[in-house]
Amino acid sequence: MGDPRPNELRQEYESELRAAHYRNNRWTLSPRARRTDAREQAIVESFLQHAAAQMPTGQPITQILDLPCGTGRFRTMLERNCQEVWSGDAAHEMLMQAPPTTGVQMSAHAIPLKENAVSAILCSRLLHHFEHAAQRNAVLQELARVSQRWIILSYFDAANFQAWRNRIRGKFRGRFPITLRTFQSEICAAGLVEHKRVYIARGLSEQVWVLLEKKQSE
Ligand SMILES: C[S@@+](CC[C@H](N)C(=O)[O-])C[C@H]1O[C@@H](n2cnc3c(N)ncnc32)[C@H](O)[C@@H]1O
User: Fold this and answer.
1) I want to staple 182 with a disulfide (CB 3.0 to 4.6 A). Which of 28, 85, 171, 178 is the partner?
2) Average pLDDT, stretch 139-149?
3) Alpha-carbon distance 95 to 20, whole Å?
4) Contact at 8 Å (CB) between 158 and 183?
5) Which residue has the higher pLDDT, 161 or 25?
6) CATH of the domain at 40
7) If we measure between CA atoms, which residue out of 78, 151, 88, 80 comes closest to residue 119?
8) pTM for this predicted structure
9) In this structure, which residue's CA is closest to atom 23 in ligand 1?
10) Is any atom of ligand 1 closer than 6 Å to the C-beta of 70?
């Protein structure tokens, strides 16, 4: 039998109410949520600009796949910085709330696209939902297979106050921080190298953003 976790996680988001909450409230209700959203938009935009500056022509990214796109939080910013934005998410209900409705239902564990199909992939707020290395590795390998070069990713880091407090409290949140060493060995195994790293609040909060590049074969 396959690993049930990816399907269980998708089911958590297959709810009209939860999807509507994510679209309408998750990033707007509190000042902290608004600050985090603004900061994440700025980080992703700066990574895209850095990636574009590395291209021989300095052209913007051609196609970016936003997976999981959730309810399309990043879409406007991605359209500003990339020629084409493709969207995918495992949960149909999340896609139904994502304007415009061009997203395709897909799993990051088995992306229905051929190798090197897009110039870049944005994978925001997915990896920390997986406890086991095999679950994360399957995602990282799919991202490396489908992207020609760039991957923008967030994950939860274990070395900060928030992760430490959750460990002490023994609270199960379905969120799994990992050490820097684990992250580095997992991206290396997927054939990726790290270009840039930005902590949302270093030492305090778990969320980390990285710009990864696929190792080019000789
Ligand atoms: C916390 S939300 C993040 C959404 C969006 N990336 C953002 O930052 O606003 C997590 C999303 O992952 C989706 N998801 C869960 N498992 C997935 C999988 N295996 N492949 C693709 N999407 C998945 C959920 O449906 C949900 O939309």
Assistant:
1) 178
2) 97
3) 11
4) no
5) 25
6) 3.40.50.150
7) 151
8) 0.95
9) 90
10) yes
